[in-house]
Amino acid sequence: MNRESWVKVCALDDIPAQGSRVLAREGGDIALFRTHDDQVFALLDRCPHKGGPLSQGMVHGRAVACPLHGWSIDLASGEAQAPDHGCARRFSARLENGAVWLAL
């Protein structure tokens, strides 16, 4: 049984376009990302390579570049893009009436 519950975490405007915002929580911070076309994504704020803060990386298209070593992480899946390997934990996110919701 799926026990996710959706939680309203912020307004879309609280996340800069092609940027991020951090949601601090026990068990690891969550990085909320906004693309240039207002899609929202959420990943654990740790690169699968060396644990760098993905929230401090540059958003490009539907990916973020880790600020430590430049790994490109797909925002939709959390997967590192080739030739790198690894995956950041992904959280379901949705946009509804200008608000960002996360499944936690």
CATH topology: Rieske Iron-sulfur Protein
Radius of gyration: 13 Å
* Global geometry: globular
Return residue spans where pLDDT drops below 50 for at least 5 consecutive residues: none
Helix content: under 10%
List keywords for this structure.
single chain; 104 residues; mainly beta; Rieske Iron-sulfur Protein; 4-stranded antiparallel β-sheet; 3-stranded antiparallel β-sheet; 0% helix; metal-binding; Nitrite reductase small subunit NirD; iron-sulfur; Rieske-like_NirD; Rieske_2Fe-2S_sf
What does this structure look like?
The structure is a single chain. The protein is an all-beta fold and 104 residues long. It has a single domain (6-103), classed as 3-layer Sandwich (Rieske Iron-sulfur Protein). The chain is built from no helices and 10 strands. The strands form 3 sheets. A 4-stranded antiparallel beta sheet has the order 2-3-4-8, with no helix packed on it. A hairpin with a 5-residue loop joins strand 3 and strand 4 (40-44). The radius of gyration is 13 Å and the shape is globular. The protein starts with 5 loop residues before the first strand and ends with a strand.
